[in-house]
UniProtKB/TrEMBL annotation:
Gene name per UniProt: tolQ
Function comment: Part of the Tol-Pal system, which plays a role in outer membrane invagination during cell division and is important for maintaining outer membrane integrity.
UniProt-listed HAMAP family: TolQ (MF_02202)
Transmembrane segments: 12-36, 127-150, 170-192
Alphabetical GO biological process terms: bacteriocin transport; cell division; protein import
InterPro entries assigned: ExbB/TolQ_transport (IPR050790), MotA_ExbB_proton_chnl (IPR002898), Tol-Pal_TolQ (IPR014163)
Keyword Cell membrane (UniProt): yes
GO cellular component term of the entry, any: plasma membrane
Topology of this chain in the membrane: Multi-pass membrane protein
Protein name: Tol-Pal system protein TolQ
Record domain MotA/TolQ/ExbB proton channel: where: 80-207
Subcellular location: Cell inner membrane; Cell membrane
Subunit structure: The Tol-Pal system is composed of five core proteins: the inner membrane proteins TolA, TolQ and TolR, the periplasmic protein TolB and the outer membrane protein Pal. They form a network linking the inner and outer membranes and the peptidoglycan layer.
Length: 227
Protein backbone atom coordinates (compact mmCIF):
# COMPACT_ATOMS: atom_id res chain seq x y z
CA UNK A 1 0.00 0.00 0.00
CA UNK A 2 2.85 2.36 0.77
CA UNK A 3 4.37 1.74 -2.66
CA UNK A 4 1.01 2.26 -4.34
CA UNK A 5 0.52 5.54 -2.48
CA UNK A 6 3.95 6.87 -3.38
CA UNK A 7 4.08 9.63 -5.96
CA UNK A 8 5.35 7.36 -8.72
CA UNK A 9 2.96 4.60 -7.69
CA UNK A 10 -0.02 6.93 -7.83
CA UNK A 11 0.93 8.06 -11.33
CA UNK A 12 1.54 4.51 -12.58
CA UNK A 13 -1.67 3.11 -11.07
CA UNK A 14 -3.83 6.08 -12.00
CA UNK A 15 -6.69 5.63 -14.44
CA UNK A 16 -6.02 6.20 -18.12
CA UNK A 17 -7.96 9.47 -18.12
CA UNK A 18 -6.02 10.87 -15.17
CA UNK A 19 -2.73 9.74 -16.74
CA UNK A 20 -3.66 11.58 -19.94
CA UNK A 21 -4.44 14.69 -17.89
CA UNK A 22 -1.07 14.43 -16.12
CA UNK A 23 0.78 13.88 -19.40
CA UNK A 24 -0.87 16.91 -20.99
CA UNK A 25 0.04 19.07 -17.99
CA UNK A 26 3.65 17.89 -18.02
CA UNK A 27 3.83 18.70 -21.74
CA UNK A 28 2.26 22.11 -21.13
CA UNK A 29 4.78 22.81 -18.37
CA UNK A 30 7.74 21.84 -20.60
CA UNK A 31 6.47 23.99 -23.47
CA UNK A 32 5.83 26.86 -21.06
CA UNK A 33 9.38 26.79 -19.67
CA UNK A 34 10.84 26.62 -23.18
CA UNK A 35 9.01 29.80 -24.15
CA UNK A 36 9.78 31.45 -20.81
CA UNK A 37 13.50 31.03 -21.42
CA UNK A 38 13.13 32.09 -25.07
CA UNK A 39 11.23 35.25 -24.09
CA UNK A 40 13.86 36.05 -21.45
CA UNK A 41 16.55 35.88 -24.12
CA UNK A 42 14.59 37.97 -26.63
CA UNK A 43 13.61 40.76 -24.23
CA UNK A 44 17.07 40.89 -22.65
CA UNK A 45 18.77 41.14 -26.03
CA UNK A 46 16.26 43.76 -27.20
CA UNK A 47 16.94 45.94 -24.14
CA UNK A 48 20.72 45.69 -24.58
CA UNK A 49 20.52 46.47 -28.31
CA UNK A 50 18.29 49.46 -27.62
CA UNK A 51 20.69 50.91 -25.06
CA UNK A 52 23.72 50.37 -27.31
CA UNK A 53 22.02 51.91 -30.33
CA UNK A 54 20.74 54.92 -28.39
CA UNK A 55 24.30 55.58 -27.20
CA UNK A 56 25.45 55.63 -30.83
CA UNK A 57 22.49 57.67 -32.04
CA UNK A 58 22.87 60.41 -29.44
CA UNK A 59 26.66 60.50 -29.67
CA UNK A 60 26.44 63.01 -32.52
CA UNK A 61 27.40 60.58 -35.28
CA UNK A 62 26.34 61.64 -38.77
CA UNK A 63 23.03 59.97 -39.62
CA UNK A 64 24.21 58.82 -43.05
CA UNK A 65 27.24 57.18 -41.51
CA UNK A 66 25.11 55.58 -38.80
CA UNK A 67 22.70 54.26 -41.42
CA UNK A 68 25.57 52.71 -43.39
CA UNK A 69 26.94 51.15 -40.23
CA UNK A 70 23.68 49.54 -39.12
CA UNK A 71 22.90 48.45 -42.70
CA UNK A 72 26.27 46.71 -42.99
CA UNK A 73 25.82 45.08 -39.61
CA UNK A 74 22.26 43.91 -40.28
CA UNK A 75 22.09 41.99 -36.99
CA UNK A 76 20.50 44.58 -34.72
CA UNK A 77 16.84 44.87 -33.96
CA UNK A 78 14.34 47.17 -32.38
CA UNK A 79 15.42 50.79 -32.64
CA UNK A 80 17.97 49.95 -35.34
CA UNK A 81 15.22 48.53 -37.55
CA UNK A 82 13.05 51.57 -36.91
CA UNK A 83 15.93 53.92 -37.68
CA UNK A 84 16.88 51.96 -40.79
CA UNK A 85 13.32 51.95 -42.13
CA UNK A 86 12.80 55.65 -41.44
CA UNK A 87 16.11 56.88 -42.84
CA UNK A 88 15.87 54.64 -45.91
CA UNK A 89 12.44 56.04 -46.76
CA UNK A 90 13.61 59.57 -45.99
CA UNK A 91 16.59 59.24 -48.36
CA UNK A 92 14.48 57.64 -51.08
CA UNK A 93 11.81 60.34 -51.01
CA UNK A 94 14.33 63.18 -50.80
CA UNK A 95 16.10 61.90 -53.91
CA UNK A 96 12.93 62.46 -55.91
CA UNK A 97 13.43 66.17 -55.40
CA UNK A 98 9.87 67.20 -56.24
CA UNK A 99 8.11 66.09 -53.07
CA UNK A 100 6.85 68.44 -50.40
CA UNK A 101 8.27 68.21 -46.91
CA UNK A 102 4.99 67.05 -45.40
CA UNK A 103 4.71 64.24 -47.95
CA UNK A 104 8.26 63.15 -47.16
CA UNK A 105 7.56 63.06 -43.43
CA UNK A 106 4.32 61.16 -43.94
CA UNK A 107 6.24 58.49 -45.83
CA UNK A 108 8.92 58.33 -43.16
CA UNK A 109 6.39 58.00 -40.35
CA UNK A 110 4.50 55.33 -42.25
CA UNK A 111 7.69 53.31 -42.73
CA UNK A 112 8.55 53.61 -39.04
CA UNK A 113 5.03 52.55 -38.02
CA UNK A 114 5.44 49.39 -40.08
CA UNK A 115 8.81 48.73 -38.42
CA UNK A 116 7.24 49.33 -34.99
CA UNK A 117 4.45 46.86 -35.74
CA UNK A 118 7.00 44.22 -36.75
CA UNK A 119 8.98 44.78 -33.55
CA UNK A 120 5.83 44.46 -31.45
CA UNK A 121 4.96 41.23 -33.24
CA UNK A 122 8.45 39.87 -32.55
CA UNK A 123 8.35 40.84 -28.87
CA UNK A 124 4.87 39.44 -28.23
CA UNK A 125 5.50 36.14 -30.01
CA UNK A 126 4.45 33.13 -27.84
CA UNK A 127 3.00 35.36 -25.11
CA UNK A 128 -0.58 34.35 -26.04
CA UNK A 129 0.45 30.70 -25.65
CA UNK A 130 1.79 31.40 -22.15
CA UNK A 131 -1.50 33.10 -21.32
CA UNK A 132 -3.42 30.09 -22.64
CA UNK A 133 -1.36 27.64 -20.58
CA UNK A 134 -1.72 29.79 -17.50
CA UNK A 135 -5.50 30.08 -17.84
CA UNK A 136 -6.37 26.52 -18.91
CA UNK A 137 -3.97 24.32 -16.91
CA UNK A 138 -5.86 24.69 -13.60
CA UNK A 139 -9.08 23.61 -15.32
CA UNK A 140 -7.39 20.63 -16.93
CA UNK A 141 -6.06 19.67 -13.49
CA UNK A 142 -9.54 20.19 -12.06
CA UNK A 143 -10.93 17.79 -14.65
CA UNK A 144 -8.45 15.18 -13.38
CA UNK A 145 -9.56 15.97 -9.84
CA UNK A 146 -13.22 15.46 -10.67
CA UNK A 147 -12.46 12.21 -12.47
CA UNK A 148 -10.47 10.94 -9.49
CA UNK A 149 -13.30 11.79 -7.09
CA UNK A 150 -15.74 9.97 -9.38
CA UNK A 151 -13.50 6.92 -9.29
CA UNK A 152 -13.37 7.05 -5.50
CA UNK A 153 -17.19 7.05 -5.31
CA UNK A 154 -17.37 4.14 -7.74
CA UNK A 155 -14.92 2.23 -5.56
CA UNK A 156 -17.10 2.92 -2.53
CA UNK A 157 -20.11 1.48 -4.32
CA UNK A 158 -18.44 -1.94 -4.58
CA UNK A 159 -17.46 -2.37 -0.95
CA UNK A 160 -19.57 -3.07 2.10
CA UNK A 161 -17.51 -0.98 4.48
CA UNK A 162 -16.05 2.36 3.44
CA UNK A 163 -12.48 2.87 4.61
CA UNK A 164 -9.79 5.39 3.87
CA UNK A 165 -7.71 2.68 2.22
CA UNK A 166 -10.39 2.23 -0.43
CA UNK A 167 -10.71 5.86 -1.47
CA UNK A 168 -7.18 7.07 -0.72
CA UNK A 169 -5.62 6.12 -4.12
CA UNK A 170 -8.35 7.81 -6.17
CA UNK A 171 -8.36 10.94 -4.03
CA UNK A 172 -4.56 11.09 -4.17
CA UNK A 173 -4.70 10.86 -7.97
CA UNK A 174 -7.09 13.80 -7.96
CA UNK A 175 -4.83 15.88 -5.74
CA UNK A 176 -1.80 15.16 -7.93
CA UNK A 177 -3.70 16.28 -11.03
CA UNK A 178 -4.66 19.50 -9.27
CA UNK A 179 -1.08 20.11 -8.13
CA UNK A 180 0.29 19.51 -11.62
CA UNK A 181 -2.24 21.94 -13.08
CA UNK A 182 -1.08 24.64 -10.68
CA UNK A 183 2.57 23.75 -11.33
CA UNK A 184 2.05 24.35 -15.06
CA UNK A 185 -0.14 27.43 -14.65
CA UNK A 186 1.67 29.54 -12.04
CA UNK A 187 5.01 30.00 -13.89
CA UNK A 188 3.16 30.67 -17.16
CA UNK A 189 1.00 33.38 -15.58
CA UNK A 190 3.96 35.01 -13.85
CA UNK A 191 6.03 34.92 -17.05
CA UNK A 192 3.17 36.30 -19.14
CA UNK A 193 2.67 39.26 -16.81
CA UNK A 194 6.41 39.89 -16.55
CA UNK A 195 7.18 39.77 -20.27
CA UNK A 196 4.03 41.64 -21.21
CA UNK A 197 5.19 44.49 -18.96
CA UNK A 198 8.71 44.36 -20.41
CA UNK A 199 7.34 44.34 -23.95
CA UNK A 200 5.11 47.31 -23.21
CA UNK A 201 8.06 49.23 -21.76
CA UNK A 202 10.23 48.44 -24.77
CA UNK A 203 7.48 49.50 -27.16
CA UNK A 204 7.08 52.81 -25.32
CA UNK A 205 10.82 53.42 -25.67
CA UNK A 206 10.69 52.46 -29.38
CA UNK A 207 7.80 54.85 -29.98
CA UNK A 208 9.62 57.60 -28.10
CA UNK A 209 12.71 57.04 -30.24
CA UNK A 210 10.60 57.07 -33.41
CA UNK A 211 9.03 60.40 -32.40
CA UNK A 212 12.42 61.93 -31.58
CA UNK A 213 13.96 60.65 -34.81
CA UNK A 214 10.96 61.95 -36.76
CA UNK A 215 11.46 65.39 -35.18
CA UNK A 216 15.12 65.39 -36.21
CA UNK A 217 14.25 64.50 -39.79
CA UNK A 218 11.46 67.07 -39.78
CA UNK A 219 13.91 69.83 -38.81
CA UNK A 220 16.37 68.51 -41.36
CA UNK A 221 13.97 68.54 -44.27
CA UNK A 222 12.57 71.96 -43.43
CA UNK A 223 16.00 73.50 -42.96
CA UNK A 224 17.01 72.21 -46.40
CA UNK A 225 13.89 73.74 -47.93
CA UNK A 226 14.59 77.10 -46.29
CA UNK A 227 18.16 77.12 -47.45
Amino acid sequence: MEDKLSLLGLIVHASVVVQLVMASLVLASIVSWMFIMQRASVTGRARRNLEQFEDKFWSGMDLTRLYQEVSEDGQGGGAENIFRAGFKEFSRLRQKGNMESDAVMEGVQRAMRVALAREEERLTEHLPLLATIGSTSPYIGLFGTVWGIMNSFRDLAHVQQATLAVVAPSISEALIATAMGLFAAIPAVIAYNRYSAKTELLMVRYETFADEFSSILHRNVHSQNVS
